[in-house]
What we know:
Layout: E1 3-4, E2 11-12, H1 14-17, H2 29-43, H3 48-55, E3 59-65, E4 68-74, E5 79-81, H4 91-100, H5 105-120, E6 124-128, H6 138-143, E7 153-154
Antiparallel strand pairs: 1-2, 3-4, 3-6, 4-5, 5-7
Helix pairs in contact: 4-5
Amino acid sequence: MVGIKGFGGALPLLSALTPVKGIPAPPNPDMLEKVAVATKRMNAAPDSAATAEFLAVQAHSVIRKDGRIAAIQWRDGTTEIRSPGGQGWDKERLIRQGLATGLSKDELNDLYVRDLARTLGAGVAVDRYGGRADAPTRGELVNSAAAGPARGQRLSVTA
């Protein structure tokens, strides 16, 4: 063992115990390009077509509590809760239940609305639009002063 003497015995030299590694290879140019593209995409302005599509989604049902929008079930299966009740709401349980019984997307939306209305308790009114053409869009409800708070909590991306 190579070491330094004079310190109460032999102390090993670090270089004698640590293997020397070669110089790391330079980063893969393809990977650097992918990182640059992803960074550019993240820093870019939102896609106007995707934003318009998002705001055009129509409501399946609007749930009001004491006259204000408490929750919205969107036709795409997402649920927006603006005024949560004191209890938690387990949408994942409903998704499993609905899929196990073979419910359609519209039937799943109905299941969510019934359960959410029950969870929110007394003073709840449900405006169900289903497939009606006059259903309000996300953009209309977000921008409406009478709609209550403009931002909700997104609980599920898809049913």
